[in-house]
Amino acid sequence: MDAHRRRSSPPAKNFSADQQPVKSMAKNPLKVKMMEQRDHDAVKASDVLPLPIYLTNAAFFTLFFSVVYFLLTRWREKIRSSTPLHVVTLSEMVAISAFVASFIYLLGFFGIDFVQSIFRPSHDVWTSEDDEVVLVREDTRKVPCGAGIDCAMPILTSPVPSVPKVADPVPVSFDLTEEDEEIVKSVVAGTTPSYSLESKLGDCARAAAIRRESLQRITGKSLSGLPLEGFDYASILGQCCEMPVGYVQIPVGIAGPLLLDGKEYSVPMATTEGCLVASTNRGCKAIMMSGGANSVLLRDAMTRAPVMRFATAKRAAELKFYVEEPANFDTLASVFNKSSRFGRLQSIKCAIAGKNLYMRFSCSTGDAMGMNMVSKGVQNVLDFLQTDFPDMDVIGISGNYCSDKKPAAVNWIEGRGKSVVCEVTITGDVVKKVLKTNVQALVELNMLKNLTGSAMAGALGGFNAHASNIVSAIFIATGQDPAQNVESSHCITMMEAVNNGQDLHVSVTMPSIEVGTVGGGTQLASQSACLNLLGVKGANREAPGSNARLLATIVAGSVLAGELSLMSAISAGHLVRSHMKYNRSSRDVTRASSS
């Protein structure tokens, strides 16, 4: 490219049907030849200049300021001698002509881009020269526009300035037919809603490809790095995700084996955080070498708490007393249990705020996480109560007294989902050889960090080192709701020296682990495979609910391993060093910046 300046504008779009933008592809020989011929034939502004551009600019700058100085001097003399200004000599006429010529040149070279930057229309109108856009009569592409972009640079014989390397886009193998092309144009124009593609086409994969192509054309951004092929889009229709355009890849690592309650489990963890799987794996090793961990399920009950409003606080209290009356509970439980084969009402706890009543329903939900199940049962009870309390105004099926996907003391105290405690006694030799620390140091660190430090921070359920790390990784790998990591990570980690201070007793108490092995994301192929690895895939027909309960104990056991390893790393001063090795650069940035 010659040394003339090129103006850059936002990407062009909204072309008419017979003028679709096509970007050059350097790997296509025909395209390269056409582009080289076009560049060869094109006449550039700098091509007509006899001198290099910097010398031409210097000459016009000198001419401009010299002529201005000359004219100002002449006009000052005319004013002093009372000579009319419109009377000009030949030299003055030449100077005025030179002034106009130099001004036009400088304005054209430097001023137009500045003026355009002020009055330039929105990015929907302008075309970028840097994108090498060519207008053609018909759009002859047979693949989505993201696959039509090739960022490879053509081979050049002359040196060029270095530019940031751009990775070649991942090609998309889905070909657009003429019918698909018409649908894409309809979606871009807004005549066909994007959300209706699945129902109109009856092909979820085709709908995702068309939606993806439409999005690329509307936004002018490529989705080439987002995979499209290799996913069963029909499996998420109406269940997991609406209007899909691809899927995100997250690596899955294995920690273990985790020896828990006499059985070994290989724990899948989906994460992008270095050291997490390795650290949890070390904790599993320490547990294994110490004879394994044990767990106890304390409670299994999902909750939902609607909010009702009455005319007076007295009337709200009357419903509270009615619901809490043992003689009425059996009736309400019978109404609730009709909504599901597995949903069984366990308790109702009420709270009043003025004339507003909150009723927290707790019920078992089998192997499902159970939010939908409990909501249906609650709706049945509310409809039943409406007969005896017609003045009850149901404000919402959820009044946040549940409490779902938010840190709340009610979950920390009363529990939600599965409440689990998991413990292990680590021998002194394992603490020294595997964890590289000592019992007294771990006990002191746990007291000052997990207990005192968390209390100083005003933590709510956060009396641990990093329980949410392990919970989130297992949740994503097994198809749980990642947002429920908020309350599922409520955990208090306890450490105590036992056997005359020789060994270490470690426990994690987690009152609200919300998991299921059926429904939601658990039925997707990848997540189902991870559940199968743990032996908890689907529903347990012999003992309904046992798979979900086992998954909750595995989560708690994995948290126990993660807590043990991280606390040991902090105690031994290895945390930063391990992250520098596995998760960060060890480069001396101060030395690099000065070099």
From TrEMBL:
Residues 1-20 are annotated as: Disordered. The chain crosses the membrane at residues 53-72, 93-112. It is a multi-pass membrane protein. One of its GO terms (cellular component) is endoplasmic reticulum membrane. It is an enzyme of class 1 (oxidoreductase). It is found in: Endoplasmic reticulum membrane; Plastid membrane. Pathway: Metabolic intermediate biosynthesis; (R)-mevalonate biosynthesis; (R)-mevalonate from acetyl-CoA: step 3/3. Gene3D superfamilies: 3-hydroxy-3-methylglutaryl-coenzyme A Reductase, Chain A, domain 2 (3.90.770.10), HMGR, N-terminal domain (1.10.3270.10), Hydroxymethylglutaryl-CoA reductase, class I/II, NAD/NADP-binding domain (3.30.70.420). Keywords: Endoplasmic reticulum, Glycoprotein, Isoprene biosynthesis, Membrane, NADP, Oxidoreductase, Transmembrane, Transmembrane helix. It catalyses: (R)-mevalonate + 2 NADP(+) + CoA = (3S)-3-hydroxy-3-methylglutaryl-CoA + 2 NADPH + 2 H(+). Its main location: endoplasmic reticulum. Its EC number is 1.1.1.34. GO terms for biological process: coenzyme A metabolic process; isoprenoid biosynthetic process; sterol biosynthetic process. GO terms for molecular function: hydroxymethylglutaryl-CoA reductase (NADPH) activity. Belongs to the HMG-CoA reductase family. This is 3-hydroxy-3-methylglutaryl coenzyme A reductase. The gene is LOC111469777.
